[in-house]
Amino acid sequence: MRPELINIGFGNMVVRSRIVAIVSPSSAPMKRLKNEAKEHRKLVDATNGRRTRSIIVTDSDHIILSAIQTETVAQRLQTEEGCNKAPS
């Protein structure tokens, strides 16, 4: 069985089943979460130098930064459009 991937922007993909939450980066608790992940070397920056618009939390406690809006990532998670099968 191959993992289903979701596009989080700029050709970056995340395994769909590992996503726990998709949150907005604007609140103070989310900024703290991001800083703590960076300190523990569990931060993945997938923004390609652009502004962070959503934070993705995984079941392995990794924090992934995306330049795609929170709502857009959530829509891709709910639909098959944003979901790609891993290449064979």
* H and E string: EEEHEEEHE
Structural class: alpha+beta
Beta strand %: 25-35%
Q: Total helix count?
A: 2
Largest sheet: 4 strands, mixed
Q: In angstroms, what separates the terminal alpha carbons?
A: 11 Å
Radius of gyration: 13 Å
Shape: globular
Q: Give the neighbour order of strands across the main sheet.
A: 3-5-6-4
Number of strands: 7
Question: Kindly state the mean pLDDT as a whole number?
Answer: 91
Helix content: 10-25%
Low-confidence stretches: none
Provide tags for this entry.
88 residues, alpha+beta, 3-stranded antiparallel β-sheet, 2 helices
Task: Give a brief outline of the structure.
This protein is an alpha+beta fold and about 90 residues long. It is built from two helices and seven strands.
Topology readout:
Blueprint: E1 4-9, E2 12-15, E3 19-23, H1 28-39, E4 43-45, E5 54-58, E6 63-66, H2 70-78, E7 83-85
Parallel strand pairs: 4-6
Antiparallel strand pairs: 1-2, 1-7, 3-5, 5-6
Description:
This protein has 88 residues and is an alpha+beta fold. It is 24% helix and 34% strand. The chain contains two helices and seven strands; from the N terminus they run E-E-E-H-E-E-E-H-E. It has helices spanning 28-39, 70-78, and strands at residues 4-9, 12-15, 19-23, 43-45, 54-58, 63-66, 83-85. Strands 3-5-6-4 form a four-stranded mixed sheet, sandwiched between helices. A three-stranded antiparallel sheet has the order 2-1-7, with helices on one face. A hairpin with a 4-residue loop joins strand 5 and strand 6 (63-66). The longest helix is centred in the middle third of the chain and has 12 residues, at 28-39.
